[in-house]
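Q: Fold this one first, please.
A: Sequence and structure below.
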Amino acid sequence: MSAAREISAVAKIPARESRDKEALCRTVGSLSDSGELAAFIEGIPGFLVDDISGADIMKHILRDKNLNLGPRIVEKLHISVYRDPSEAVRGTISCLGAIWHIIVYCYRKDTPRNDIEEWFNEETLPVLETLFYEGPIIGHYLLSTTAAFTSSILSSYMFSAKSMEQELRHLGVELPWAVSEPRLEQKRVENYLFNTSPDVTSGCIMALKKWLSMLYRDFTAIKAHMDGQQPPSTDELIQSLWAFQTLVNEAQITVYNDFLTKLLSDFPPYEALVTFYRLDCDHDPSLSVSLYNQTRLVDFLRAYDDMSSVAFEQLLGDVVILDNDDLINETIDIVADYLNDNPDNEAALRASSTLIEQKDRQRPSARGNLWITQAK
């Protein structure tokens, strides 16, 4: 039995406890042979999908710095394109599949840990950005994995900023009346997002990371200064945190627009549909997704009979981007038809509720010239 199969077999025994996780870590550490490591990477998607405790076990392995599993997967991906063509295709897809499944099954955005950057190193996004291999199948997996990876990092940044803001508000720090001069880090991020070709590259992520570290430094200093003292009535840090969250949200929308523009220009093959990821951010209605991409999303939802249920359910999570009244009404009808055959489908039920709320937001007020807005 291969090392990868041994790991899977041991992990699926419910009675195993922490000592078995350590045993698994030792086993993974022994995967020095390139073929053994490749077999293990190839087995990650199935292990995470089939085993109920797979995500917890995989997170334990990913956090072990001695094993360095995440960077080893990325390194394997980087060199795979230089292999024999048949081996390169298999190796590239298995590495991309492993990264994508780790993000989807192991990452949670509602945690103070920045798991994605802990599991993988700073070389991951540049490798994904520069990876080149001809062929639509690899292109679809690469596009989806890069978008999901970037979106997950942005989600973790958003959670960190919101946590700091909430704690400051709890301490009595409020938004200042005056608008302060934007920080240098903010201007650098804006240069990526507000130009003729906005793009959330590894450079943009590094600028956001630097900005977040500066915010955390100020946050720590203010907390120390306020210890046992009356909190100040205002502080520009809150304003900067607001600006940071707005730009992270803008970056999320940019990632999603770019993803849809590239992937939905033509109806993609099944391999692309099963790599769809859901727009998993606190969508700000003022940051509108392009009408073209909203229309393409509805086109895909309309063709749900031609795609897997997993892909369709993931797309249902994206109805939050719709702000066009006609598209909202059409999507409500599509979801209603789907619910006729699948009345207990949770993704469709959530989408139905979301669409109704969005339709209410679009309805004119009694005075005719104002729009009803609902607090998030």
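Q: Good. Now the second chain.
A: Here it is, same layout.
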Amino acid sequence: MTESAPKKVDLKPFLNNLQLFEFSNEEQSKRVTNSMSKTEWMGLIDENRIPTDVLDQIVLNHLVFEGHSDVAKCFQEEAGLPGHPAIDAIDFRSTLRDHILKGEIGEAIELVKDEHPSFFDNDTKIPTQFRLKLQYVLEMIRTETDIDMIITYVHNELRPLVINEETGHIIQNELIGILESVLVLLTFKDFDDLPNEYKDYLTDDFKNDTGALVNADFLSHIGDMPPISQLSGSLQTLFYVEGCIRKSKSSIPSLNRNTLKMVFDE
């Protein structure tokens, strides 16, 4: 019997129940719009607890998103949570990301072809296909591969992603602009002479961004997950709501973005 997919966690109902985000009457609203002491604030938090099973799902989602395979599987079992295809794919995503960060893009592409051959035939994945293959071009440039080999690869692998082969029309304006910028690198003999706008393509940060983009896209491709973990999304929501409340000139405690500790104005 095929196991049904686990139900996604929708945080909106829980956020809407919190008096910090949505108030059901004027008295509750005044509790936040006026300056609040630490005791009052903590009391308000105690009145609004997110169910344990929802917190468990958020934690598991974060572990899966960050690629902690063993911990995710143990936590899933101990918390009694249902299976999810993204958990089984953690090892694949970790290996793929490691290849990218090490500059082993050829190995990364072959891994994708072996494990998920339909990925490169999916038109909705063109931006990620392009980015992964573009990174391969950058690694060839970095290692001073023969220019003819680079041009041949660009013509065979990248050109079809941005230009319609039959009409010759550009179908991905943004991507072809990036490709043109990368090809400019071939005109420089010394990378130290590169303008800053081109140097960025050869940095580890650009390579890390490629790894993050591919990782997020495969979470969606394999496990139907959004490109951001529920924990990160919840924190972003919290920071946004804090900003909205502070715009009303209310004095409220805030969450320190570096330590994630609550800060109270004495």
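Q: Anything worth noting on the second one?
A: The mean pLDDT is 79.
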